Amino acid sequence: MKTSYGGTPAIVPNRLKSPVRSARRGLLVFFAFLIPLSILGYVLAMKIADLGVLFLMWTPGLASIFTRLLLREGKADISLLIGGRKTLRTLPFILLLPVIIGLAAYGTAWITGLVEVVTPETSLKASPVIVFVGLLLMQMFAGTALGLIGSAGEELGWRGYMLTRLIDARIPFPILTSGIIWGIWHLPMILAGNYYSGPYPVLSVVLFMITITAFGCIIGRLRLSTGSVWPAVLLHAAWNAIIQDVFDAFTQGKNALLWTGESGILVAIVVVAAALFISRKPLHVKTL
Known about the structure:
By secondary structure, the protein is mainly α. It has helices at residues 19-71, 84-88, 91-112, 128-168, 174-191, 201-226, 230-247, 256-259, 265-278, and strands spanning 116-117, 251-252. Helix 3 (91-112) packs parallel to helix 7 (230-247) and helix 4 (128-168) runs antiparallel to helix 7. The longest helix is centred in the N-terminal third of the chain and has 53 residues, at 19-71.
């Protein structure tokens, strides 16, 4: 049995002869685990901050692990193999994409005066430009490496399980659908004011959904085109480290969350443009 996305088929009980039925059952069980785990994660994230957020980020991964164990699906289709040269060739793209998006979106906000540019307190005593470059390089490598701890939890669930099941279940526009679900999963934190909640909550939700859905499409294509979940994990970690810990750190002002950040107007525009540009080429699914 070969999956429609070209990956190694999951091991399923003999009575489940239809891959479509099997995938749909997997999705139902996955969400049955994900929803209560996420509710617990939202509560913990609001009460114990860093550890709670880490648990929340791991809820999709835990849901996928529990689902695989319950349905005896195995782990072959997670695509945990590195993927050789094809995956290694994606590293410049992974590290530079958040930088390019940040420079385009935040740079526009800085130059036009829509937001204030500030230099965060660091141990490096130098000009703002040197501090920015130094912090950027540190987050591109050390920050991304550290961020793997959390991003691995999300990607094992979202792109390591849910996306491929959406494809096998013949859900229309599976990459786009996975991005929308990923965005909805973040909304309780935004509505509670704990995550990129700008001055206009409804607008923040709309813009965040646009940004995260478009970025989810980029990550989804990367995971499928390389045949490995690791590029998705790396890009997720690089985005968090570079955008949140560099560009957001240099940005302040009462309209900062209106124009920048994951619920900002300019970031939404640039990420959508990047997703459309990347989607121009046909998707060639890689099998490991």
